[in-house]
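JOB MANIFEST
job_type = single_chain_structure
chain_count = 1
residues = 372
[input]
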Amino acid sequence: MNIESLLNKIKIFKELVVDSGFKRDVTDYRQSIGQPQNQNLVFMKSLSQNIKTNLIDFENNSLDSELHSVLRDNEPFTTLNTLEELEELDNDKEIDGQKYLQKFLAILTQLQKSITANETELNTVKSTFDKYVSDQNEYDTEGEQAVMSLIFKDLESTGSIKEFARVLQRWNRTLLTYHTLLKSESPKEISLVEIQNGSIDVIFNIDFDVAVDLTELIKTGLKVYGAYLLYKSKKAREIIDSYMGNTKLIEMEVEREKLMLDNIKGSIKQKAIEQHKQRLSEDKNISKTSATKKADEVAKVITDHIIKGNEVKLLTPPEIDEELEDEKDLGSELREETAIVRERYKKLNVEEKQLLLEKYTIKEEDESTEKK
């Protein structure tokens, strides 16, 4: 496994489980229910709900698959079925306080033990491999390469060698095209670092500045996509129901939905054009030829990628300025936006998911027409 990728997976565990306070909270919850005044159903169920909320967040951040890729001596704590056990416990309408306490305490004890074992092993792995990675400051210099990964989870893209090769070729062409929007010098051939199994993870090197802009571009698409999913999953139904059959209002709402759907790709294209103009103000030698068409091609490939539930990761993000309290790690921001999209996508029905695929999936015949 690529070292940057491995360390990124450990970093995700640290952010979600340790830095978030979840590990500490599990320990505190276990201690607090040992106090007689806290052994009532209302209090214990509130703690259970907090844990369930975090576990769902871990699921949306693909923490289980990340841990499976790294851990060798211990099973990931995400395999304990804690969420299902808590759901079953909370849904028991006949259980009394003492029985709830016994089962809840057993769940917390096992969860705490497993998290501690995972953390111990991950810290050992991290200390071993940290020394083999270049200092992050070195990535901030002009001309340096950044490590990124394309993660394919949809079976359509990875179900056959022919299809997967076509998708990789499409991405190779897109990344080179995107480079020409932002840089005047000719792009280097995208160097493939590794292909990891599971949900296929393609790790590659790319110009550092281009990687940062690409991350921002994908974040833009995810934000707009997330807004559309939020609208479709809840707000649209509530709004249309409130119109009580008013035809004109319903027609306006249908048009709004269409515009929001179109805006997923449109926002990415517009952001790419804005990035091109910004870079052009810094480097007059950047080619202006077919910039809008190039931005459209880039937007099409990115949209196809994200609506299928696939991901992009920045494994070597820029160093954070510790003096800026609100500044976040760019790679973490991208992962958070991806998690939001994944959670909202689950709420769509089959027809709504199919609409997205029909509108934005790139078909082989479409590519053949574009090349002519």
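[summary]
DSSP finds 14 helices and four strands in the chain.
Residues 145-360 form one domain.
exit_status = 0
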